[in-house]
Amino acid sequence: MPHPARERRRIVITGLGCVTPLGVDVASTWEGAVSGRSGVRPIERFDASEFSVRFAGQVPGEVRVDDIPSKEARRLDRFILLAVSAAQEAVRDAGLVVTPDTGERMGVAIGTGIGGIQTLYEGYQSLLEGGPRRVSPFSIPMSIGNMAAGYVAIRLGLRGPNLCHVSACTSGAHSIGESARLIERGDADVMLAGGSEAAATQIGLAGFAAMRALSTRNESPEAASRPFDRDRDGFVIGEGAAVLVLEEEGRARARGAKIRGHLLGYATTCDAAHVASPTEDAEGAQRCMRLALADAGLTPGEVDYLNAHATSTPAGDPAEARAIRAAFGPHVDRVAVSSTKSMTGHLLGAAGAVEALLCIRALETGLLPPTINLEQPDPECALDHVANKARQARARVALSNSFGFGGSNATLVLGRADV
Amino acid sequence: MSDEIHAEAAGQAGMSLDERVFQIIVQHLGAKPAQIVPDASFIDDLGADSLAIVQFVMAIEEAFDIEIPDADADQLQTIGDAVAYLQQRLEG
């Protein structure tokens, strides 16, 4: 928390970067999101014929990275590669110049739910097949969760705080919120904050499928992620990364940076109830939204758009809808709600970062991305849904919810550049 | 990573020992053909770090079906060292 005697430092967003199932950069991802396109397709990178779930949200095409020798790029786990691509785009977008001096005041926080699960899996296979001497020396450095943040810092020369928030599907939102706190406290002036996940792998898919958490709509993958719809049957795993450049407002204005939006508030809570299921009243989520609005100094009546966590699970979506209705009270009718996971799938530890990014684009363009596949809204999930088609709205303030296994909740409050 | 090692182990018939070592160096250390000279140091000339060298030694072990003790691996500083060591182990 900021020192009471000192004015709170304001945080602006000056750069955006992402790689998602909708596209390998922000432009293609945003184009996909506002045109209501699905990024969910049959699994392409391994033979999934034995799996009960045979589709995922997968990045279409080559992931672009600059200045990394191919021998080094080949060693990187995919979750690191995705993060580097998103971070490089965000830094270019922000026009950020990193020098040995300024680099000390710039940090990185890229969260992940699981980290380098494929590298760990391959290392384990080598152990079983060839014994301990066959395990690659890169098994550990490429699978540890903080290596996305670590590697981005190495490539870009960012020598300030370097963190990895690991809180399942709340990781991306936590990284952004906690990065804002670091800047407010004066520990850094710039933070590259976001999340990365590459768990659409054999062990990732099998593990989530075993929980019966995933949609099994193999016959029509594009219709499988359908948050708030009556016929939803589970979430769809997605891969990707997103990184936002958070910057202290005075610094950003002094260098003439383009202000993309404000990070106005943040809060985080825990259900302390169940490892994977929400509570009936979603009290933890309600309280999280209230605290985030209080942190921003705003009231529910001032929120125009809410990007819901809603992953398309039978229990999660109505619980969040109840929490939103409780937190917004009589103002719930004026907040437009959508779940962009209907198009991207659920990017787990990257989800909160991708969705914060989409909120910023929505505030910039006045176009709210829809919840697709919302054919028959579940009455239990009654809200003002942006259903199936993007909606034009001069939104000034947006909320982004993220909830994760372990009962963890986070809400970010984002504001248009002129707020 | 393990895929690369397996790919190398297969189908190497007809290549000399030098050529097989050079191929592994190119694949694992990203060296260019012009850098492949006996005096080239893995660290100073080819820019390998300690982890990359471990991986290179593992690929050699797999390709030649031998076990290289850590103490021996530590002595392999240059391409020439690696070729000479293998000649001694395999032919000596």
What does this structure look like?
The complex is a heterodimer of chains A (419) and B (92). In chain A, helix 3 packs across helix 5. With 419 residues, chain A is of the alpha/beta class. In chain A, the strands form three sheets. In chain A, strands 5-4-6-7-1-8-15-14-9-10-12 form an eleven-stranded mixed sheet, sandwiched between helices. Chain A has a two-stranded antiparallel sheet with strand order 2-3. Chain A has a two-stranded antiparallel sheet with strand order 11-13. Chain A starts with 10 loop residues before the first strand and ends with a strand. In chain A, helix 10 links the parallel strand 9 and strand 10. Chain A is built from twelve helices and 15 strands. The mean pLDDT of chain A is 96. Chain B is mainly α and 92 residues long. Helices cover 58% and strands 0% of the residues of chain B. The radius of gyration of chain B is 12 Å and the shape is globular. The interface between A and B is medium-sized, with 20 and 16 residues.
Blueprint of the fold:
The complex is a heterodimer of chains A (419) and B (92).
Chain A: E1 11-19, H1 26-34, E2 40-42, E3 55-57, H2 70-75, H3 78-94, E4 106-111, H4 117-130, H5 147-156, E5 162-163, H6 171-185, E6 190-197, H7 202-210, E7 240-248, H8 249-254, E8 261-270, H9 283-296, E9 305-307, H10 316-328, E10 336-338, H11 341-344, H12 351-365, E11 367-368, E12 384-385, E13 391-392, E14 397-404, E15 408-416
Parallel strand pairs in A: 4-5, 4-6, 9-10, 9-14, 10-12
Antiparallel strand pairs in A: 1-7, 1-8, 2-3, 6-7, 8-15, 11-13, 14-15
Chain B: H1 2-9, H2 17-29, H3 50-64, H4 70-73, H5 79-91
